[in-house]
């Protein structure tokens, strides 16, 4: 992963590699789901009752199935559900348009660039990258580009244009996802390593877990939180200073460990820590669903110093 002067140290939060260097914003929200199955050895239809409790934005959704066979599988979409990635797709499209110098008007002074609000509307109206481009070029005119110096005027050339742009965009999107755009990511937990590893491998997957820049558990340091040693060790492993890190914690003990290491800290409190004294934190939230990473806005707040804003 590319080096950076900034680093994020997160406590038991699924890493989000979708960090964009452009004006697009990245969500830090975590979708927490706990399954509470009730099992019975009886083969009759009644015993299996899986229950899912999903917490997001401070709300709870209870889903249950009382009869066997009523719920046999859970199927998730990816973009926008598991990964808040639409802004990364937009970035990849705009990079492709710039790469091929795509211009839909002879008077255009810059390559095509899909703005945030426009793309939000576009992606909710038309699914798939190629259909998006076909619709847009059909509405606003087929473009000149490095692929075709003059706008393509037949179906074969138009499909070739769309195919080439889409293929380049797809590879660019993969690069953005893999790179994390330079922000290092670490997880520091006071819990026993074996239990944290099991949790993370199941929560975020083995590949993402192995892709962390640093992972430390309680076994890796002599002193537990609120002693700052785990965060000091993480900073050393990451090759950054404490002031260039941002810690996300949920308790005052974790906050004390972070600030003791000279690291600013954001709190996402739980029901059991909500009433603790977090005055040393730079911000406090029930969750991070409304917190975004950004580089293009001009908000004036303490967390904005760390390229974060609240929507």
UniProtKB/TrEMBL annotation:
Pfam families, per the entry: Hydrolase (PF00702)
Protein name: Haloacid dehalogenase-like hydrolase domain-containing protein At4g39970 isoform X3
Domain of life: Eukaryota
Organism: Coffea arabica (Arabian coffee)
Gene3D superfamilies attached to this UniProt entry: HAD superfamily/HAD-like, Putative phosphatase, domain 2
């Amino acid at each position: 992963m590319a080096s950076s002067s900034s680093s994020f140290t997160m406590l038991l939060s699924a890493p989000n590699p979708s960090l964009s260097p452009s004006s697009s914003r990245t969500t830090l929200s975590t979708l927490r789901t706990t399954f509470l199955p009730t099992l019975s050895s009886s083969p009759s239809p009644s015993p299996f009752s899986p229950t899912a409790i999903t917490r997001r934005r401070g709300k709870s959704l209870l889903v249950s199935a009382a009869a066997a066979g009523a719920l046999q599988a859970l199927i998730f979409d990816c973009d926008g559900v598991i990964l808040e990635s639409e802004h990364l797709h937009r970035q990849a499209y705009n990079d492709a348009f710039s790469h091929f110098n795509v211009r839909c008007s002879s008077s255009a002074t810059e390559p095509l660039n899909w703005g945030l609000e426009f793309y939000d509307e576009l992606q909710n109206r038309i699914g798939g990258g190629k259909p998006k481009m076909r619709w847009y070029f059909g509405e606003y005119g087929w473009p000149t580009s490095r692929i075709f110096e003059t706008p393509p005027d037949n179906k074969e050339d138009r499909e070739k244009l769309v195919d080439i742009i889409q293929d380049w965009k797809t590879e660019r999107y993969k690069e953005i996802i893999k790179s994390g755009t330079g922000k290092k990511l670490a997880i520091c937990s006071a819990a026993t390593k074996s239990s944290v590893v099991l949790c993370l491998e199941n929560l975020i997957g083995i590949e993402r877990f192995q892709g962390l820049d640093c992972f430390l558990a309680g076994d890796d340091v002599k002193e537990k939180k609120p002693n700052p040693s785990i965060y000091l060790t993480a900073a050393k492993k990451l090759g950054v200073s404490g002031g260039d890190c941002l810690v996300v914690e949920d308790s005052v003990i974790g906050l004390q460990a972070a600030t003791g290491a000279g690291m600013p800290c954001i709190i996402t409190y739980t029901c059991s820590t909500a009433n603790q004294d977090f005055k040393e934190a730079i911000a406090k939230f029930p969750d991070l669903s409304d917190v975004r990473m950004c580089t293009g806005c001009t908000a004036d707040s303490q967390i904005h110093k760390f390229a974060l804003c609240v929507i």
